[in-house]
Automatic annotation (TrEMBL), chains A, B:
GO biological process, one term: isocitrate metabolic process
Family, similarity comment: Belongs to the isocitrate and isopropylmalate dehydrogenases family.
Keyword Membrane among record annotations: no
Annotated GO MF terms: isocitrate dehydrogenase (NAD+) activity
Pfam families: Iso_dh
Organism whose genome encodes this protein: Salinirubellus salinus
Designated name of the protein: Isocitrate/isopropylmalate family dehydrogenase
InterPro entries the record matches: IsoPropMal-DH-like_dom
Domain Isopropylmalate dehydrogenase-like: 4-323
Length: 327, 327
């Protein structure tokens, strides 16, 4: 069976790391992909007046899966509609420390399961009077239950014993109260073990004792912030993949952005995108190929070559070739 | 002149660290305080049905300054009204690493200037339909300008060269857009140097390169989360003081909570509260006494004794006595 994959490199280093991931996918045996490239991002905006052309949106909405790189200033105009296009309600962001990579906290092995459709991302904002602006944060019981089900399933299927529900229900009593209640109800129905944590306290505890945490189920913005924080624990954003999933489709992207400071130099770390491609393989049902890709990346992280963000002087191409060689 | 100080120890270790800070203040020459103690917190709630009795609120609203410890489950019902009682719009939270204390990032010297009146703390929430809840996040130009003025002043007066405006204006375009615009306008009017940062990216950068940051001006929740994160960088919440200021009055409190796990054992670290008392001294115009207290705390942090949270085995009383001895 041929898998129809939409590829959206986007801006900056997206143009370097997405081709690297495609190279890795093409080197796999027994998986047949058809890649079609689409435009999005700042350059597309400058050329066409739209950061996310309708045809890119439609392609993502009908492909088996989409591999996205990064976008610059227009990131929110690209990534938020794309997450919606693939009908994803869960943003899965593993953050692990790897042997061979200098990490602030080598014991880190976390997976953020971020609610991907509501919270402050509702987009309902206005200037209601001169100098007075409001945003309506939306939290529904259905979406909260849905992400909790996903998070508890993920923990079980992937062998994580600790499940933590992040929230700020002491201040956002009604909305995060609803989120927490729904997540607790799901946990209790399953007889699962779990804990909850205020997102502020959790930010500190993840720094001081990351080994005590596993899967963190979080509202949209909390998941956004805490997963970036976790990138700091494991050596930077160059290592963090993500999967926007929930429906048959899916959108797979590195957590990092377009990194204009190093774009065009051929030194971007492709690992986050290659690991995102591995999450895509899992999603499409190629578990073995996914494991092979992950092993290859781990081998390269352990023994090199490394790009400059990890203290090495290898190029994107060197690292990609080394990954391919290990497959 | 006698300064009329309201003292609210609250719950848990608040009952231990607030008396310690009072002991330090009483040991100072040339400062005449009259302390009056008031109740608040979980125990007060259990006894009186109210976490924050009207008389505590009124006392804080009319005192020269209030020194608060911590509250348990009822923290939000105590601390949020108290912040309002003293008419504070700025929550100042320094986070520094100290010689002698094991810190994840010994180069950390940050001050969070957190907007203290709006954002998601507006309290406007409801269940608008079955299973559908909303919160109205409020951001005004006036409050944003006011905190920016305060933050730029603070940076100038305290010798910080880096000012960073934290926000999530790529998603909360109208509300955080207004916050960012107002802060930038203030910075530009002053010809000040500043930068802005997305709060998610900032969470990571503070971990990886804290030395590049100084004063961080932040909306309410961003300041809440980022300052707790910074506690993780410098060795824990036992060291972080805070000042809720903006009017003549002020409310001074450690960033930590009531720590029920160690309450009643006499081993709580009093430093955060003693440093909060030093911020109070500064606020009341006793700059020299404030510097003396800070020096004494730094001396004890450098040479011991240390409470268990810092790896020592000293008691709250040992540490307090050592601080007093150095005055
Ligand atoms: C670009 C931005 C809209 C996005 C988000 O806030 O989700 C980014 O920070 C991310 O985490 O993917
Ligand atoms: C207790 C809670 C309401 C409070 C806050 O969110 O401000 C606390 O986290 C703090 O930072 O002082």
């Amino acid at each position: 069976m041929t898998e129809d994959i939409v590829v959206v490199p986007g801006d900056g280093i997206g143009q370097e790391v997405v081709p690297a991931a495609v190279e890795v996918l093409e080197a796999l045996d027994g998986v047949d992909f058809e890649f079609t490239e689409y435009d999005a991002g700042d350059e597309t905006l400058a050329e066409t007046g739209e950061a996310l052309p309708e045809e890119t949106y439609e392609a993502a909405a009908s492909a088996d899966a989409t591999l996205f790189g990064a976008a610059g200033e227009s990131a929110a105009d690209v990534i938020l509609p794309l997450r919606e296009a693939v009908d994803s309600f869960a943003n899965v962001r593993p953050a692990r420390a790897y042997p061979g990579v200098d990490a602030l906290r080598p014991e880190t092995d976390l997976v953020f399961v971020r609610e991907n459709t509501e919270g402050v991302y509702s987009g309902i904002e206005s200037e209601i009077a001169d100098g007075v602006t409001t945003l309506t944060r939306v939290v529904t019981e259905d979406a909260s239950r849905r992400i909790a089900e996903f998070g508890f399933d993920y923990a079980e299927q992937n062998g994580y014993e600790d499940v933590t529900i992040a929230h700020k229900a002491n201040v956002m009593r009604v909305t995060d109260g609803a989120f927490l209640d729904a997540c607790e109800a799901v946990g209790d129905e399953r007889g699962a073990d779990y804990d909850d944590a205020l997102m502020d306290a959790l930010a500190m505890h993840l720094l001081l004792r990351p080994e005590e945490y596993g899967v963190v189920i979080a509202p949209n913005l909390a998941g956004d912030v805490l997963s970036d924080l976790a990138a700091g624990l494991v050596g930077g954003l160059g290592l963090l993949p993500s999967a926007n999933v929930g429906s048959e489709r899916g959108l797979f992207e590195p957590v990092h952005g377009s990194a204009p400071d190093i774009a065009g130099q051929g030194i971007a770390n492709p690992c986050a995108t290659v690991l995102s491609a591995a999450m895509m393989l899992d999603h499409l049902g190629y578990g073995e190929a996914a494991a092979d890709v992950r092993d290859a990346v781990e081998g390269v992280l352990a023994e090199g070559p490394h790009t400059p963000d990890l203290g090495g002087d290898a190029s994107t191409e060197d690292v990609t070739a080394a990954i391919v060689e290990r497959l």
